[in-house]
Each structure stands twice: as C-alpha cells, then as structure tokens.
C-alpha cells in the first residue's frame, strides 16, 4: 500500500523516463522546482504536494475514517475536486478549476487510492465509480497497469489498481483488457516462480523485469499480496491468525500467489524485524520503514498476524523520523494499528490520531479525545536514538515547514530488494 514513495522528483522522473506517453513528456505538468505550489488549506501536510498531494490526502482520510474521525468537509472537498472530468486523477493539480487536458499527467496510483478513500467516506459513490471506470479504461493489453497510462505494466501499480477495483465492488478477475487478459493475468506475470534462485526470493513479486529477469521487490510483493487477496488498503483484523507458511506453490490462483508472497514477506521480516532497502546513492542497505508497514498489512490480510508481530514492535520504536509531519506516513501507521488491534493513540508512546489530525484542517468529529484541539508544541525537543514518544508531541504542532524528504510509498520506487 503503502504505502511508500521515493523522493518525489527522483521518483516522478524515473517513472516518466521509464516510458511515459509522449503527451505527458511534451509539456511539464508541474511548476518549476524553484516555485513550488502553495499548499491548499484543505490539504493535509505542509510539504510540496506536487508529487503526492492526492496520495497523502487519500491515506489521511482513510486513516481518519477507520478510527472514527469525521474528516473536515474542506478536506474531502479538496480530494473530490482533484478528479478530472474523465474520472482520473493527476498526482496534484494546483488549479483544480482548470479542465484536465492533453498536458495532464494522469496517475493511476493516485486515482486508485482516491477511489478507495471516496468509496469509504460515503456520499461519493459516483466519484468512486467514475474513478474505477477510468482505471479500467487505461488497462494495458497484458492485463496490468503502469503508473503513467501508456507505459509498460509494472507490479506495484497493477496491484494498487486491483485493490482499488476490489474496494469499489469490481471483480478483478473479470476486468479484462482488449486482448482478453484479466487484471490477475497482469499481476501474476510479475511473480517469481518457486524454482527461483536464491531460494529466499521464491514467491516474491518483481516490480518489472530487469534485463529480462524478475528480481524480488518488497513494495511489489506487499502490494501484490493485498491485490491477490482482493483486498484494499484498509485491512480489518483477521478472524484467523496462523504463522505464514514456508512452502511455495506455483498455483495459478491469486490466493496461492498471495500465500506464497506472504511467506516470502514473513521470512524477510524474521531476520531483523523489518525490511531493508538500498536507497539511491547508497551502497549499504538501511531499514525500509514504509515497506515494513506495508508488509505488516499484507501479512494481517493473509491471516498471519503472528508473523507480523515483531515488525509491529519495530515500527513502534523506529518509525518516528519517517512519519514526522507526514500525513501519509502517519495515516499508514494508523492503518497498521487498526489491522493489528493496536491502540493508534498509544502506538509506542505515540498518539497517531492526534498527530495526523494536526497535519491538516481540524476534523468535524472524532472518536474519544481525537476531537480535542491538539496542543501546539514548539519544535525544540530532542529525539532519542529509538525515536519513541517525545517527537510525537513535537509533531502535534502545526508542522509548518516540516517535510520528511522521502515521500511515503515505494509505489514510485524501483529499488530491487
């Protein structure tokens, strides 16, 4: 889900250069980096929304709704107002009053998560259906989707779209391209077989082939697990709870692929309690907080909460810097807490709900103390090495000027793990 985007400029350029439609490349759809757009009052977060405005707004609204917070009307109106007449969304439109046209760079990921948010909030069914219909209209012949329509399919975008279609009431197995390929045909094409080497990669999903070879990718695997189960970003606590299996089967059913992918994620988490990734420009792997959160959601969705327990504890103590001031990151942690039955107001000493509410317009209503106006804090506190507790109180402030540099969700990253 998650959740997890690479540095905005790097990610956007990588996706576009990977094969964006000529119309998308012909004219820039965003302002110059030297003059970032003004952050609208209805939008959550204070950093430049050029590459993640719709995404972070949708995650924030989904998280609030999940814990009983009624989002501000202006926040919902902002998201709905970003939709183009054809049903699709760009990553962000500074002037939503202007009609979308040939220069609009559509974003399947933003559209997919917006569909889920609009569907969940209620009263937006028409907009959600319009978005789902647009997603179906830009399906590639192989059954999959690209981040930018017209580009080659990749697993992460295909998975996010499938999750959105399922949340909107569609049956992904029946969503077929003009060539007759189903959405699941498109997704399973990126699955590593059970004969893959090294053995630790078996059951995983690749983002896209690299020189004709599929390489295991954590973001793609977590997203594909949810999609293969026909589930969206909001994961309810599972009725069953068993450890993830270690056997890998090459069955054609999406459920079999989901189980094998969950086994891969569980094994990857077992070593350190979290996933790792090599960031652009680095030569050593570092903890990958966003994909760790996504892996937790995927494992719970597959009925393997036990296999995610260690990662949840790691997130409680190590997600501070990653989530500080970020509505998308905070929202994802709220969804993790919801899925695992953890109190989001006491997540490793953090009140996620209050911190999330503080990043945007005050909600209309909330469950419990979340309706209270959060106290403003001066950003002069320190952070311990574990990042627990104290920074969350700092983050409760207006969060003006705060940016995390790395945007939530590897939906836009291609680091091969």
From TrEMBL:
TM segment ranges: 389-408
GO molecular function, one term: catalytic activity
Residue span, Prenyltransferase alpha-alpha toroid domain: 71-171
Annotated signal peptide: 1-26
Domain of life: Bacteria
Annotated stretches, region: Disordered: 361-386
Keywords, ordered alphabetically: Membrane, Repeat, Signal, Transmembrane, Transmembrane helix
Protein name: Prenyltransferase alpha-alpha toroid domain-containing protein
Organism annotation: Streptomyces globosus
Record lineage: Bacteria, Bacillati, Actinomycetota, Actinomycetes, Kitasatosporales
């Amino acid at each position: 889900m998650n959740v997890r985007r690479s540095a905005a400029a790097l990610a956007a350029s990588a996706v576009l250069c990977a094969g964006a439609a000529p119309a998308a490349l012909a004219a820039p759809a965003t302002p110059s980096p030297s003059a970032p757009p003004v952050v609208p009052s209805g939008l959550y977060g204070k950093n430049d929304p050029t590459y993640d405005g719709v995404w972070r707004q949708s995650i924030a609204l989904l998280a609030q709704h999940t814990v009983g917070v009624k989002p501000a009307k202006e926040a919902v109106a902002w998201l709905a107002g970003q939709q183009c007449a054809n049903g699709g969304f760009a990553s962000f439109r500074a002037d939503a009053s202007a009609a979308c046209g040939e220069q609009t760079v559509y974003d399947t990921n933003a559209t997919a998560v917006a569909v889920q948010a609009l569907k969940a909030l209620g009263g937006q069914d028409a907009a959600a259906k319009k978005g789902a219909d647009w997603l179906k209209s830009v399906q590639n012949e192989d059954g999959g989707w690209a981040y930018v329509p017209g580009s080659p399919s990749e697993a992460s975008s295909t998975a996010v779209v499938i999750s959105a279609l399922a949340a909107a009431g569609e049956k992904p197995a029946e969503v077929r391209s003009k060539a007759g390929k189903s959405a699941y045909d498109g997704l399973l094409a990126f699955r590593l077989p059970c004969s893959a080497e090294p053995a630790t990669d078996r059951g995983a999903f690749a983002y896209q082939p690299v020189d004709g070879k599929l390489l295991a990718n954590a973001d793609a695997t977590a997203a594909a697990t949810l999609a293969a189960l026909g589930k969206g970003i909001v994961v309810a606590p599972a009725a069953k709870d068993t450890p993830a299996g270690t056997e890998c089967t090459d069955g054609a059913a999406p459920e079999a692929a989901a189980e094998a992918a969950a086994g891969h994620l569980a094994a990857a988490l077992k070593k350190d309690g979290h996933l790792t990734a090599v960031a652009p420009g680095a030569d050593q792997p570092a903890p990958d907080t966003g994909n760790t959160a996504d892996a937790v959601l995927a494992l719970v969705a597959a009925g393997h909460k036990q296999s995610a327990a260690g990662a949840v504890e790691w997130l409680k103590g190590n997600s501070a810097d990653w989530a500080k001031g970020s509505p998308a990151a905070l929202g994802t942690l709220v969804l993790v807490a919801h899925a695992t039955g953890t109190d989001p107001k006491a997540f490793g000493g953090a009140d996620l709900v209050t911190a999330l509410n503080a990043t945007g317009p005050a909600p209309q209503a909330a469950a419990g103390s979340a309706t209270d106006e959060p106290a403003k804090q001066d950003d002069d506190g320190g952070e311990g090495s574990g990042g627990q507790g104290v920074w969350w109180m700092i983050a409760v402030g207006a969060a003006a000027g705060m940016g995390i540099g790395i945007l939530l969700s590897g939906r836009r990253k291609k680091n091969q793990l």
